[in-house]
Write a structure and sequence with these properties.
Largest sheet: 5 strands, parallel
Biased composition (Low complexity): 10-20
Order of helices and strands: EHEHEEHEEHHHEH
Bound molecules: adenosine-5'-diphosphate, manganese (II) ion
Protein name: Adenylate kinase isoenzyme 6 homolog
Subunit structure: Interacts with small ribosomal subunit protein uS11. Not a structural component of 43S pre-ribosomes, but transiently interacts with them by binding to uS11.
Structural class: alpha/beta
Enzyme class: transferase
Number of helices: 7
CATH superfamily: P-loop containing nucleotide triphosphate hydrolases
Organism: Mikania micrantha (bitter vine)
């Protein structure tokens, strides 16, 4: 068993993965890995998708890059996808969820419009990330958490921090 757990924080863009993960990293002293930033910084992509306005992630390169760090444990991985990581990498998979109207405002503020905006709202309506997580990981390690308000976020950080503290001490 790893001495410290690996946690995946996933959800539709705008649900609060990065904000939650950095607060969680501060509270737990685990390492926050933002996959979007990693892909950009280490060029783990196959170019830029003009239509979707994002890098075309190379999943194999990402998994290779993460291998040693994940083996060590103690990582919070932040990404809006979850089906391409090896299942054994994670001890907890957190799926953040946000009400449509709240998400709509957050993504508009971020400058999303047109198909990019509606695709993400649909992704949230159909709970695509929760489905993907349940298909990819054992059901007992997948937890959905509401992320509508700052109170929600603080509560989520506290809940996950308590779980991290108890890691290894449970028999
Ligand atoms: P993601 O990484 O999932 O795309 P972010 O963490 O970047 O989402 O959050 C998107 C925006 O929404 C940010 O402006 C952030 O401050 C805000 N936000 C995120 N989670 C919450 C929350 N639970 N309550 C209120 N605002 C939030
Ligand atoms: Mn983010």
């Amino acid at each position: 068993m790893r001495s410290k757990p690996n946690i995946l924080v996933t959800g539709t863009p705008g649900t609060g993965k990065t904000t939650t993960s950095s607060a969680l990293a501060e509270a737990t002293h685990l390492r926050h890995i933002n996959i979007g930033d990693l892909v950009k910084d280490k060029k783990l992509h196959d170019g830029w998708d003009d239509e979707l306005q994002c890098y075309i992630i190379n999943e194999d390169l990402v998994c290779d890059e993460l291998e040693d760090t994940m083996e060590e444990g103690g990582n919070i991985v932040d990404y809006h996808g979850c089906d391409f990581f090896p299942e054994r990498l994670f001890d907890r998979v957190v799926v953040l969820q946000t009400e449509n109207s709240v998400l709509y405002d957050r993504l508009s503020k971020r400058g999303y419009t047109g198909a990019k905006l509606t695709n993400n709202i649909e992704c949230e309506i159909f709970q695509e990330l929760l489905e993907e997580a349940k298909e990819s990981y054992r059901e007992e390690i997948v937890v959905a958490m509401k992320s509508n308000t700052v109170d929600d976020m603080n509560r989520n950080v506290t809940t996950i921090t308590e779980w991290v503290s108890s890691w290894g001490s449970t028999t």
